[in-house]
Write a structure and sequence with these properties.
The complex is a heterodimer of chains A (about 850) and B (about 240). Chain A is of the alpha/beta class. In chain A, about 40% of the residues lie in helices and about 15% in strands. The termini of chain A are far apart. Chain B is about 20% helix and about 30% strand. Classes of the chains: A alpha/beta (about 850), B alpha/beta (about 240).
Chain lengths: ~850, ~240
Amino acid sequence: MDAPHLPDRFRSWFASRGWTPRAHQLQLIDHLSQGHSTLLIAPTGAGKTLAGFLPSLVELERRGTRKPGAAGGGIHTLYISPLKALAVDIARNLEAPVADMDLPVRLETRTGDTPSHKRQRQKLNPPDILLTTPEQIALLLSDPVSARLFASLKTVILDELHALVTSKRGDLLALGLARLRRLAPGLRTVGLSATVAEPDDLRAYLVEQPDTEARALSHLVQVTGGARPDISILDSEERLPWSGHSSRYAIRDIYGLIKQHNVSLLFVNTRSQAEMVFQELWRINDDTLPIALHHGSLDVGQRRRVEAAMAAGSLRAVVATSSLDMGIDWGDIDLVINIGAPKGASRLAQRIGRANHRMDEPSRAVLVPANRFEVLECQAALSASRRGEQDTPPLRKGALDVLAQHLLGLACADPLDALATFGEIRSSQTYRHLDWETFEKVLDFVATGGYALKTYEQYAKLRKGKDGLWRIAHPKIAQQYRLNVGTIVEAPMLKVRLVKSRADGRRAPVGRGGRMLGEIEEYFIEQLAPGDTFLFGGEVLRFEAIRENEAYVSRAKTDNPMIPSYMGGKFPLSTYLAASVRAMLSDPESWKDLPAQVRDWLEIQKDKSVLPQQDGLLVETFPRASKHYMVCYPFEGRLAHQTLGMLVTRRLERMGAQPMGFVANDYALAVWGLRDLSALFSSGRISLEELFEQDILGDDLDAWLAESSLMKRTFRNCAVIAGLIERRHPGQEKTGRQVTVSSDLIYDVLRAHEPDHILLRATWNDASEGLLDISRLGELLARIRGRITHTGLPHVSPLAVPILLEIGKEPVYGEAMDRILEEAAEELVLEALE
Amino acid sequence: MSALTSHLRNYTAAPVCHDIPINGQLVGLHDSGVLWWPDENTLVVADLHLEKASSYARRGVMLPPYDTGATLEKLAGVMDAFDPARVICLGDSFHDAEGSDRLPAPYRAMLTTLQLGREWIWVTGNHDPVAPVRLCGETVDEISFGPLTFRHEPIEKIGSEETEGEICGHLHPAARVRRFGRSIRRSCFATDGTRLVLPAFGALTGGLNVTDAAYSMIFRRRQFSVFLLGNDRLFPFTASRLVGD
């Protein structure tokens, strides 16, 4: 293709490096020069980032050097990345061509780490290209200088767009974009994305939406091809485990693969899996290969060292969680090993993409299922990859807590006109379904808390002036806003500090001043008693004590931590893979690709019980060791199953079946109790249709939510984002623990007195998509209506074995808190009588 | 008023208390978090923190303005059940010194109704060091009846005569119990038999774990008991069985 829009300086630069501009890079210049926003979908290694910047660089080259203080001296191009490290990395990579071509372009980064004097200077004397994050955009937009700063903005580049839009950060950015479009009419956007299921969602995200049903879309440039990845499922001689997530059985095979390759990247789903795999590999690392560990809660210094070693090519393998899913160039990785199930076809594709940065060579990847069900899931992901199918989640509906934060930010910058702002917000795809009534409620929430009991008018944060515009009541409000900006609410973390053990000298106080190992979630530490051992940073640690916001630990003299991995898959199984697994199970013809062990397992299931049908629900009941079990196989992911388990046990209780507890995993749900469930179901005393009736999502759900700690955690996040509770900052005396307590109390009071408050609505929306996965549960209940098959069995079925094995490993639900206290207290009474 | 009626329903039967001796006096601990002293027909309640939400709202933190109502409704239920002749509020009854002045009229009326025909004693606290305005009752810094002394903050001494029979609040005791891999945290009473700390009664009041250093100033290490508040009973534990936060 000819390159009509590429100036000579660029042509010779490409030539000097022995490159030719790629077709998609030229197309992008073409679209942008005509004023069209464009989505570029391309695999890793296609020169995506350069393609995004080229149109701006070309324009800036034509503009020439800007005289200091000349008119129109604002930012020309904004580059927004989900990771600040990525923004810094990209800036570094971009400096080379800018210098080589001697372009009259000033580019700078702005992240949370940028010193304040530099940020101030950037406002007075902005660079041509600013590389930054969604939070910084929000901060800039809350500043009164924003109108001037962005008046001459021409282009916004959104990197890793597929990752950005799936979270509340994407909502925040969508709102920011809407404001930027208003400040800089004619603004063009460039979205850079990996392959997704619905490109049109992203195309709509990039452009202003009309006030009609029709959806406006950006232009699309799609780079197909790239060599097909070479993916296989590990064919191990070892016995495939029935359950668990450890993949310990395959550790020698994994080690063998590492030895055969130059550099391997091992992806796992959770931090505890990473710890376990890392430890197991070193246990058998007879050749002392340089194998490293990388996950989000390790100390930053430690992570940077691993990254540097990786870039320098001095490592043979890195065990990593999704902290490495994205972005930064990792040098020459020639093998990706995905341990555990991939949970989603697109997630797998993106991880595999890390393996090879040259488009024309195939990435090589090996999948290591941790148990038998995961074999099915890996097989489904493999087929999806061969067909090039994707299962990225659909575009979110914008969250109301994020909207609340944004409205306050806008009012900090300029007096806010409610009607105009409402129109502006609805022009973004993410918020186009927002109705005026809800908008008003959110605005009212920002101003005075939005309570039906109007008692806070005198303390209002926003006041409506005689001109009808809303202004912040006090400059202090803007300061508060700045401290609260952003949508990432970290789980309260404790620092992990190494101290000397007090196991030997019992009375000695725990020593101070040891090395910091990293951070760990508070809720995990809460489960531990002093003396418990667990894996962290690749070693077995003994928990000693909590001091302020630090967990004191010592080195344990054991190889076997007492606290096993406490979580299964962190990501729920995608709907798409779940459907594929169900289809595979119900069709014995498709089993030929499966390992013999798995095939045999399914054959026996077919003989002894029945196979789950693709769109139905199989319910098995059987007695075992003086208890009666009910196991069903919805394949809708752990979160939806947990919610279902909670609701079904409540309902069984009311129906008189006396359930005692349940356990859920990604594939199945098991409930047990003392009464003969087979008899209750087959005699019709309890109707399964009634048990799984859709109305279970009504009152039962409501009653349970009142108590649910998941709901309270969700509420806390919404309350922080919406600005009801102040965010915790380092050095502040308020610890996360105290925030948790008070937000729980606020939740209780609010729920009792104003159950339809806007913040409870935001919480409900979050929970139904997130931790409780109610939307997916609703789809399940609709799908299985009239399609429930019950089989009463004399004993446990082959399919039920994995879930029964998880009893005791996974937390068991369904026991009332008071009941637990009662048992603990009575034990004490017995102790006292001895 | 549904919360009120449910409380009424719960408490119409003679309230069941957990009776323990403090400094030789038999007193009853109730799962609502109040202390009942039958010999003196006296009800004791600590740390109501009325108007806490509006106190925050003044600083731009718009907590739900329902805490005072919720706390008073719960108190009304308890009063109805015990029908005390004397009520002692153990300090921090209002979240700040202007709290009683801000008290909205309906709640003021509600509180006044509760006070009718009763001896009412406001013990001052660090949050409310002054007498409440436009409300009945006697305001004291501390007060003794027989062998028991009622003050807001415990005296930070152990084994001293001054602290014998001390009934106080201030610390908002809470305790955590671990069981079956889960941990449960609840407000609680804390006592070593000579003195007693009441849980905070207010709707928006959090708790401070009894393993915190603050308690080591008033109880000998691990030599005290707690009574966790359950839905309709108390759960006793010795301090050695508790875990920190």
